[in-house]
Amino acid sequence: MKDISTIIFRLTVACLLAGLVMGSAFILTNKAKKHNIHVNEQKVMLSLLGYGDKNPPPAGLAMHEVYRYLVDEGKGMGYLLPLKDGGLTFLSLDLDGAFVSQTPVAITPDKAGDESERKQAIEAAIGKEKNLRYAEQTIVVTDNGRRTAYMLPGRFPGFKTFINAILALDQNFAILGLDIMEHEEDPGLGAEIDQDYFKGQFTGKSLERLKTLEVEKKPLPEEYRRVLEAKSQSGMGADELKSIREQYLDKDIYALTGATISSRAVTNGVKGMVKKFAYRVAILDRVLTEQKIATAF
What is the pTM assigned to this prediction? Predict the structure, then answer.
């Protein structure tokens, strides 16, 4: 009996130690994973804005994170906003876009990047009974305080599962660039949505053009493909590149061969993201002006 008790005790201790080691390893690797994802997203965003090793971003460039929430089970919405003085505030609106309240939130911008800490800080400010549900993140880009672009991380249904993407828009909501971050479309078919010759077709599309944008089941013209694929642009002058791109600016999206559904999924997803954002940011800017709220952007 004593031997059985000893064995049970030792097994229990071993399991506890193993759990402690595995738990610690998970925390460390998960933290590193989140950091790597964040670094990669920052690199992609700068690339969509036209910056890189050969063209570094200006010293005055800043990215301001804005978080949108649904409040009271969708009866209203709220925005966690960075202020000009360095603080954060939670702006509550009703479903008609009318101002409800503005509440300071005691959290630093760097800690606000953690969803759990962010929600706890907002709930501490406005009360847990408000029933918050995270909706989306937007990044407002400024250069020396002047608003220059928007970054929209988002996801939408694909042929199989969801497609994660990042969109860059200028001040007038025209597309500066699109990158596909994650997807599970069919290899060799729908998986081509992450290729330059497909996602590059969205660059330059205006908000008005996006509203009626469709997918066309025709072969992608070879000259257009050469412009869209960076590796094929050698030997083409800037004027030639610009001229060819402008010829196709008002065209619909050329579908991927054998993957019309995936092509439509991205097209509809991009259209939805831009149209909804343009509508919401117009309401937000109106309220900020009416309430004289000095945001960082």
Answer: 0.85
